[in-house]
């Protein structure tokens, strides 16, 4: 066979220049005839053989170049079917323009296939061996794209015409679907579909369904609206079957539909808590491919947006916690009853709550602590014990989302101390139930000080039983009954000591108790805190005898009227030693409140300099024991800052302890590994910059040192 091939090759006549030129003229004539849709003068087999002969004698490069030039000249001339020289677009209606474009494209494809069949030998030898050269078919596509479709005016007219036909079909008109299918296929084959058509198509779809969604939300009720959405989705699916949209375009189209036709409805349905319609919405999303993940994303974003408005609006601080609880109940109901207990939606809700509730550091934790205080305080008649337990359970769910739980602990401890010391706790069982919940959630270390406070109160009761027995054995028993709470300083909030002038009988009784207590517990130190003390006084009015339950400061003021009939504010301040702001609030509660046991001259709601006070003998009240509440000073900004600063200081101590603990165990550690270990151990949010400051502080105090050669490495100093 090899010998036969060599023999045939040798037997072929050597091609002359005239033969080559004549053959090319013959081929070019055939190409022109194909392009002009006229009859070809030569036999196709003869033309194919001529191409093979030229290729066999290394004329392929010239032949390929000449063929490309002929095709390019023809395609360039086709532009005048669509526009007049040089810039004006030809005057045709959109449909006629599209038909002309389609006819031109179909002719071009048919001609290119015919030309390729003649030049097949060239395509499969020379072109195939040169990877940088496009095939004859690809060359035809490139020329049509470059000279026809990439023309700015022609491309705009073509795309606008296609979009117009699609919009007509969406509006229920009959259109030539085969024409649209062919033109969309053309854009895809020419690789201009994405840049020339897809973006404009999606923008038009955005515009159409945004307007339609807004209009229908106002015109129709929600169920009818949702059914319309379902019908629209079916229509778009049918449209995608009829027309060759790209896969990526179909996905984006689906997303556009879901966004404009569903999200507008989703926000409204969630705002109005339309449970039945939300369930229908979930079913619609379930039927659409990729629908549930999109609904999940909108659900998550809605919760973040709505929750952020609650948390980040200072004007709503007063009702923030109640609004959060109501919002959580509402979202739980939707997740369970409308979204079929879908685990993904429940987890997305938890993630969204955790995100928005920590957008505003510290404040939600502080307000949750105060909300718990309002529910556990005596006088709260809003709920039974069972309802209170349910409220506490709901609060714990919100509490779990908070990162800075130590802020909650600081404010909770301050409020718990007031409830225990002033006897304002609604229920010891409810207090211990809350403590148990916190312990279960955060561990024993979190509640150790809180438990210590309860332990102090119980020990104090035992001590007072012993003290009463002790007093009965005294030769000179006092006519004042004293009750003392012994508080371990490390467990309780710190209180600023305030020196006041107590009556001689009280001072004497304090000394008796001090002698009794230190006799049993030597080495301990007692520090009296008058700010939280209270007393029951016996008073005589014209109406008869009464008992008045008052704070220690109120007691000191009232006892002065045993010694005189009238005093000025300056005289009371000097005699009692009470700080001015506290004294004004005390006098206001006694002379300007509901139970006015003192008269103020001149009359008024506020206590001013120069006011004078006298005992109100005409005071009347239906009860025998009257409780006169101290005017509570609202928690000042300074107090809040002070509590927050104490939390910050505690955090610094915890960071220092964690660093030393880690370094003591690991001996040598790089900065990044140390920071990573700290994030694993610390239970509150902390910035890398703060960690770096604490590390530098420990280096300065010789707890650790930097490596001399690698500054980013630390060594523990024993």
From TrEMBL:
Transmembrane spans: none
Keyword Metal-binding: no
Protein's GO biological process: cellular response to UV; developmental process; DNA repair; proteasome-mediated ubiquitin-dependent protein catabolic process; protein ubiquitination; regulation of protein metabolic process; rhythmic process; ribosome biogenesis
GO molecular-function terms, A-Z: ubiquitin protein ligase binding
Gene Ontology annotations for the cellular component aspect, listed alphabetically: Cul4A-RING E3 ubiquitin ligase complex
Cullin family profile domain residues: 363-591
Domain of life from the UniProt record: Eukaryota
Pathway listed: Protein modification; protein ubiquitination
InterPro entries (alphabetical): Cullin, Cullin-like_AB, Cullin_CS, Cullin_homology, Cullin_homology_sf, Cullin_N, Cullin_neddylation_domain, Cullin_repeat-like_dom_sf
One Pfam family it belongs to: Cullin_Nedd8
UniProt keyword annotations, A-Z: Biological rhythms, DNA damage, DNA repair, Host-virus interaction, Isopeptide bond, Phosphoprotein, Ubl conjugation, Ubl conjugation pathway
Family statement: Belongs to the cullin family.
UniProt name for this protein: Cullin-4A
Organism name: Neogobius melanostomus
